[in-house]
Write a structure and sequence with these properties.
Elements lengths: L10 E2 L2 H9 L1 H4 L17 E3 L2 E4 L2 E3 L1 E5 L10 H13 L4 E5 L17 E2 L1 H16 L3 E5 L9 H10 L9 H4 L1 H15 L16 E5 L16 H22 L4 E3 L24 H4 L8 E5 L7 E2 L10 E2 H16 L3 E6 L8 H17 L4 E4 L17 H18 L15 E3 L3 E3 L12 E7 L5 E2 L5 E3 L4 E11 L4 E11 L6 E5 L11 E9 L2 E11 L6 E9 L2 E11 L3 E8 L2 E6 L8 E8 L2 E7 L6 E7 L5 E9 L7 E6 L8 E5 L7 E4 L34 H10 L3 H4 L2 H4 L9 H10 L1
Helix pairs in contact: 1-16, 3-4, 5-7, 7-8, 10-11, 11-12, 13-16
């Protein structure tokens, strides 16, 4: 696929299929789906009977849909603003999408069949990372029955060439389409979040996966199928795909995403007949489906009416629709109930009618002990109400907030606070670790105190502290939360801290977007005089934003950006030359695909700087050269800017012995202080991941990834699950089983053959 104008990098995900085809599905089937990495701090949402649970205690979830945050042209600021609104209102659940098919503008998730746009995936990374920080859990939906952003129709058109809703039955039965769907699911589940470093299937921020949004199979879309065939195709797909998700991800719950229609012998209309091929009770008795989904739209569904409007044509009112589903889960299904979409259309009715019905429906959900509810949809005040279904805080906010108070009081044991700690598993000396207590809560009040012990003799009292360790080791981290009455709860984790290798520097910097009259960053510099050439290997960037920057820099004064030159890499935009003169910052982009790891070279010859990059330290490409007005005596070094004002970007620079004796400082009015740490240790003799891997036969290849002293199937699975990740590729010398100089699926097969 050609690159888009936003310079995203799509990729094809076929790892699982290639491996199974090569090794034989029967031989490795029992391995696929085992966790690839340990879960971060925080409990996964579970179930017990008809209740959601967290750590064994009851959990009730309440929130909203918001498709605006995953719209293919959505910006990160909208994500931040929406999540801040939800947190302020006491909501704890957000339902949104992980799909977009066939579009080529902005960041569509899957612009071509089997190809995923990296910028869209990074935007989803940001959503998951920020949800965690705001104490929100997510319902993420894999596909859409409706064609708003591609949907089932696009899958069918890609494979069969047929377009239009008359061909939607193929989505459920065509094997090539089913494989495209599985490929998309695998891409999401096995992705390592570029911000948190955690695989999606290992992240408890996600409360549940949803197989599809409102799937159904009506006669007009499957004329060639009998009702038995339609039900068989529909439920067969649900059974197969829920099992597939469970195979890859046993940690998370799965919702069907259906609207909750019943199939009953005396069904009066499509709400209770077999017309949609849905049967709420039958679908949710499928083993792989954990959560009972239903929706409610009196505006769209004939026969479902608002109570004040009920008449001769009414089959059920909204309250009755809720009661029917509560009864079904209690008497037949035995799983938690989740009302995924509901609202009153304010255009056809009124805001006052909406207020009245929302209160009645929430009362009924509370009385029926429903586990979760997400209204459609709470938006920012600046969002236009394009369809009559947008909910605004200044209108209906108090109703949602009151229900949030009710479900919070029912969660936990009713009085003792819940402590839920999150934090990094691994850090380098001097690297900031973001710890959090965002999922901690008090059922009957609020948490008043946070008491952190970081295991190195230091403590903290913030809800989301950032901590750096000054020495390597394994540290036990404890969080104790207290409520207003003095009740306490504690949660713990551990973090392994490794030394920074010699001649390596870890730099962290915040800052606004570098442009025009703004240059905010963290610099580590040494004095330089006259002409010079400096090189460094930028090994990696832990970027919070796609336009974060890291590179080599020369500056007249480390406290003043008005005269500087730099060779820079950005995750999304490649290499560039950055210069500041005449009161303006200029960014001259190469618009290439240069991303870490990459060697950088900065040269000054007279009044001109030259900026070059190299993938191997030998073959150099000059990006740009340009003049700068700078003193003979200046400062040269490295810099990092997150271009996300309140968060840090971390970068690792190797081969920087010339920075010995450096001084570091923030440039500009940054919101979060940066830091720089020069390594005094040595490069590790073994792999840095997994920490406990061993080399049983002493040949320099660490075949025993689990550290139990033998080479077995869990070792094969762990290498298979992580082959393309930075954890393995950064330790390639230690996992090159077949000795060809690369770590790929051939190494997995070679390890498999050893077992």
């Amino acid at each position: 696929m050609t690159r888009h104008t936003d310079h995203s990098e799509p990729r094809s995900t076929t790892t699982r299929r290639r491996f199974l085809a090569a090794a034989g599905a029967s031989a490795v089937g029992g391995l696929v789906g085992l966790p690839a990495t340990a879960a971060p701090g925080g409990e996964f949402v579970g179930t017990e009977g008809t209740s959601f649970t967290l750590g064994g205690d009851p959990l009730y979830l309440n929130g909203s849909n918001n498709f605006w945050i995953t719209n293919r042209c959505a910006e990160r600021q909208r994500v931040d603003d929406v999540f801040q609104l939800y947190e302020e209102m006491g909501l704890n659940l957000v339902r949104t999408w992980t799909f977009c098919e066939g579009h080529t503008d902005c960041h569509c998730m899957q612009p071509e069949p089997g190809v995923h746009d990296e910028s869209a995936l990074k935007h989803l990374d940001y959503i998951v990372a920020r949800a965690r920080e705001h104490g929100l859990r997510l319902v993420l939906t894999f596909a859409d029955f409706w064609p708003h952003s591609g949907g089932f129709d696009q899958y069918v058109e890609w494979v069969t060439g047929n377009s239009g809703k008359g061909y939607r039955a193929a989505f459920y039965v065509n094997e090539e389409i089913r494989e495209l769907y599985r490929n998309h699911v695998e891409t999401i589940l096995t992705r390592t979040n570029s911000i948190t470093g955690v695989e999606y299937r290992e992240d408890p921020t996600i409360a549940m996966w949803e197989l599809a949004n409102e799937p159904r199979l009506e006669p007009k879309w499957a004329d060639q199928l009998s009702i038995d065939d339609r039900v068989g195709a529909f439920e067969g797909w649900m059974d197969d795909m829920s099992a597939y998700v469970k195979d890859l991800d046993p940690n998370h719950l799965i919702s069907s995403g259906v609207e909750g229609f019943f199939t009953r012998p005396d069904g009066e209309n499509f709400l209770y007949s077999d017309w949609t091929a849905q049967d709420f009770e039958s679908v949710h008795q499928i083993d792989g489906i954990d959560v009972c989904s239903f929706h409610m739209y009196p505006h769209h569904w004939p026969g479902l009416d608002l109570e004040p409007n009920a008449g001769a044509e009414t089959v059920a009112t909204g309250v009755e629709w809720i009661r029917d589903h509560v009864q079904a889960v209690e008497e037949t299904v035995g799983k938690p109930l989740y009302l995924g979409e509901f609202n009153v259309n304010a255009d056809s009715q009124s805001v006052s009618m909406r207020q009245d019905r929302l209160e009645a429906w929430y009362d009924e959900l509370d009385a029926g002990d429903a586990g979760a509810a997400t209204a459609w949809q709470l938006v920012l005040e600046s969002t236009s109400d394009h369809d009559g279904f947008q909910i605004y805080r200044n209108q209906s906010g108090p109703i949602l907030e009151a229900y949030a108070d009710r479900v919070r009081a029912k969660s936990g044991d009713g009085s003792t606070p819940i402590a839920d700690l999150s934090g990094p598993e691994d850090l380098l000396v001097g690297e900031s670790g973001a710890f959090g207590a965002s999922y901690s809560f008090d059922p009957d009040g609020s948490i008043s105190d946070y008491d952190w012990s970081f295991g190195d003799g230091t403590s903290g009292s913030e809800s989301a502290p950032v901590h750096r360790y000054s020495a390597p080791g394994t540290y036990d981290v404890d969080l104790t939360v207290s409520d207003e009455t003095g009740n306490e709860a504690t949660d713990s984790t551990s973090v392994t801290v490794e030394d920074v290798p010699e001649d390596t520097m870890i730099v962290e910097g915040a800052g606004k977007t570098v442009s025009d009259t703004t240059f905010e960053a963290h610099l580590a510099t040494v004095p330089v005089s006259g002409d010079f050439t400096r090189e460094a290997h930028l090994d990696w960037m832990d970027a919070t934003a796609g336009d974060a920057q890291a590179g080599l820099i020369v500056v007249d004064d480390p406290a003043d950006w008005s005269s500087l030159g730099a060779v820079t890499l950005t995750p999304d935009d490649g290499a560039e030359q950055t210069r500041a003169y005449s009161g303006t910052v200029w960014r001259e982009r190469a618009e290439d695909d240069s991303t870490p790891p990459m060697d950088l070279r900065l040269e000054r010859a007279g009044g001109t700087i030259h900026c070059s990059v190299s993938p191997d330290g030998e073959s150099w490409t000059e990006i740009e050269s340009g003049e700068i007005d700078m003193s003979e005596d200046a400062f040269v070094g490295v810099y990092v800017s997150s271009n996300s004002p309140e968060t840090l970007c971390t970068a690792r620079f190797d081969d920087v012995s010339w920075l010995d004796g450096f001084e570091s400082r923030d440039m500009g009015d940054v919101a979060v202080a940066g830091a720089a740490t020069m390594g005094g240790g040595s490069d590790p003799e073994g792999p840095t991941w997994p920490i406990n891997a061993t080399d049983p036969d002493g040949d320099g290849v660490y075949e025993d990834l689990s550290g139990n002293g033998v080479v077995d199937f869990p070792d094969v699975n762990r290498l298979f699950q992580n082959t393309d990740t930075a954890d393995v590729q950064d330790n390639a010398d230690f996992y090159d089983v077949d000795g060809d100089g690369d770590v790929d699926m051939q190494d997995v097969l070679a390890l498999f053959e050893m077992v």
